[in-house]
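Model it.
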Amino acid sequence: MRFLIFNWRDIKNPKSGGAEVLTHQMAKRWAEKGHRIVIFSSFFKGAKREEVLDNVKIIRAGNSLSVYWQAYRYYKRFFKGKFDIIIDEINTIPFFTTLYVKEPLIGHINQLAKEVWFYESCLPLAMLGYLIEPLILKLYRSRPVITISRSTKEDLLRLGFKKERIFVIPMGIGFEPLEVLAEKEKEPTLIYVGRLKKSKRVHHIIKAFRLIKERIPFCKLWIVGNGDPRYKKRLYQMAKGLDNIEFFHNISDKDKLDLMKKAHAIIVTSVREGWGLIVTEANAMGTPAIGYKVAGLKDSIEEGVNGLFTEQNNSYALSQTIIEFLKNKKLQTTISKSSLNSSKRYDWDKTATKFLEVISQVSSSKFN
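Modeled.
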């Protein structure tokens, strides 16, 4: 089959995240099975306009905003009638393919933005985005939609999407989980891994760390990731005067996994997630998650199995949960072992197979 995937970013984009990891992991596995895969995404500084990566062709045009118009132009000039299935990946803004695509079409929605708008945009634009998002998404209600969590499925059902048209696929990880638990740092060590932006609420973690240090003076915090320069500057300012906070930017995947393996817990405080892939990856390193019970994270974290939830979504509650965890050696050992075991359920091969099953149904014109 011939697949065309519209996504505003590809796996090489410096701002790529879990959605792009999922997309590329699926695409390269489909290519291995003999399918022809093309990903159309935005151009970024230093990128090639076209390249083949893992037998997947990537075409780039436009920036993070104009890519949507460019997608329409390329479809009309080059893509129309040349693909068997088109996947519209909706990351805040859709490609509006329902208005012009004639081929079988799937909407791929990992998460809704909802309240994230108020963290990442100024107030007038944030309110506009918050109000318009559900109206735009309704354009896709008659189409089959793939998502990655019950949380997003519930959001879509509230918008009027039909249950039988929503397909939830499992997530995966791109490396083998540890065979046995590795040795942790001697001092109690916490880690955050991900984009540094307001909606991830990394500032909550630093506030909580200040409170934790009062009870556990030798505790350490590693903050791993890059992102918004202004937000990063704010985090550095907050960290002033606090011992044992270390920032890691632009490190390799190997080094990232090594840090997660040594940490006692990964901290996740996002406003919402589609799933929270970093939770599953940390679990595969034998590291449980401590986080807020929000959309996405309440799917990737199972209380007492691979992580713990705070009673409230604020820094004080976060600090108390972390302190209780770090002072309970038996709990640490038990939940670290079960985290590692739980991660072995996740496999990109299974995800790719499930996704292809949905595509097979869609391409048969059952839903289009």
